[in-house]
Amino acid sequence: MPEPTGVIHDIGYQRYTGPRLGRRAVFGALYLHGLRTAFGLGRSAKAKIFPWLVVAIVTVVAAGLAAVRSQVGESVMTYAQFADNMSWLVIFFVAVVAPELVSRDLRSGVLPLYFSRPLPRSDYPLAKLLALMTALWLLLGGPQLVMFLGAAFTTGDGMRGVWNELLDLLPSLLYAGLWAVVFASVGLLVASLTGKRAFAAGGIVAVFLMTTPIVGTLSIMPSQTVNELAFLASPSTLVGGVGTWALGDLLLFAGEGGVPIGDFGPVYAVAAVLLVTGCVALLLLRYRKVAAR
Questions:
Q1: Which residues contact 28 (CB under 8 A, 6 or more apart)?
Q2: Separation between Cα atoms, residue 57 and residue 165, nearest integer Å
Q3: Dist. CA 129–CA 184, nearest whole Å
Q4: Closest CA to 169 of 78, 253, 75
Q5: Quick one: pLDDT at residue 93?
Q6: CA-CA 20 to 30 A from 244: which of 4, 65, 121, 259?
Q7: What are the DSSP calls for the chain, one per residue?
Q8: pLDDT confidence tier of residue 293, bands split at 50, 70 and 90
């Protein structure tokens, strides 16, 4: 009879006997971790530099607008216009954050660990998407709140003035949410296509910025219908078109502002819904294929 060739040592590992929280807790943990990752929380100081630099820029701009209003007694920019004017920063924020949320996991090969029970395949991308949407909404909505507080404390109409400001703020927060939903859906889909963060970031910037010349070309065509539909060609101008249709005067200042979409506002709204729905569907399909490998 052969002698044993190995020995089993008890090195003190114990079985987990705590509560098993299930799918909802896993989803919540992924969402919270994604939101913290977006702002570099719990990571190195280097990872915090860019997101908090963007936060500082939009906050300083909002505080400056509030200070100017307190001095001159008039608004120099509406809440909705603030979201429009800060959209270029949102593009670069998405280009940096979206690859951090998904490309790192693709490259490191840890997805099989995430996809072990009780996490369904769809929960991972949806949690990451919701985290990015929340981060973008906070990025635009937080400074709008700063503008509101500045206006509320300097209004000369008392509580009636505060109420009027609140009525302007609430739709604009929804508008900021529209920016967040569209940009997060497009950005995360592009980032999910590659495990290399540099390629993902470049692809996101290309999608948002390289579609702008198409809008410019179509907007100078001799057909007025083509001109008014031209803004469908880029995610940024698509959101602006929906905002012009839905918010109207809240996007106008001194008779200027908004996107010249004519009577095609409902078309822009339907196009935005289809864009987001398509991006989310492709994102889920992408992770179904990744999980099957």
A1: none
A2: 23
A3: 7
A4: 78
A5: 94
A6: 65
A7: -PPP-------------S----HHHHHHHHHHHHHHHHTTTTS-HHHHHHHHHHHHHHHHHHHHHHHHHHHHSS-SS-HHHHHHHTHHHHHHHHHHHHIIIIIHHHHHT-HHHHTSTT--TTHHHHHHHHHHHHHHHHHHHHHHHHHHHHHHHH-SSHHHHHHHHHHHHHHHHHHHHHHHHHHHHHHHHHHTT-S-HHHHHHHHHHHHHTTHHHHHHHHTSS-HHHHHHGGGGSHHHHHHHHHHHHHGGGG-BTTB-S---TT-HHHHHHHHHHHHHHHHHHHHHHHHHHHH-
A8: low
Please report, in angstroms and rounded to a whole number, the separation of the first and last CA atoms in the chain.
44
* Residue 9: per-residue pLDDT: 66
Structure tokens at 288: 């179904």
Query: Whole-angstrom Cα distance, residue 49 to residue 56?
Result: 10
Residue 1 CB burial class (10 angstroms; 0-12, 13-18, ≥19): exposed
Best CA proximity match to 258, nearest among 271, 245, 272, 273: 245
Residue-level pLDDT at 278: 96
So what's the pLDDT on residue 253? 46
Region of poorest pLDDT, from 60-69, 102-111, 157-166, 253-262: 253-262
Handedness of CA 137, 275, 237, 270 (dihedral sign): negative
Locate tokens 């990571």: which residue? 43
> Counting every residue, how long is the chain?
293
Give residue 87's identity as a one-letter amino acid code. Answer: S
| Lowest mean pLDDT across 56-70, 151-165, 166-180, 257-271 | 151-165
What pLDDT is attached to residue 185? 95
Query: What gap in Å lies between CA 205 and CA 186, rounded to an integer?
Result: 11
Could you tell me if 131 and 38 are in contact, meaning their C-beta atoms sit under 8 angstroms apart?
Answer: yes
Q: Over 90: is that where the pLDDT of 195 sits?
A: no
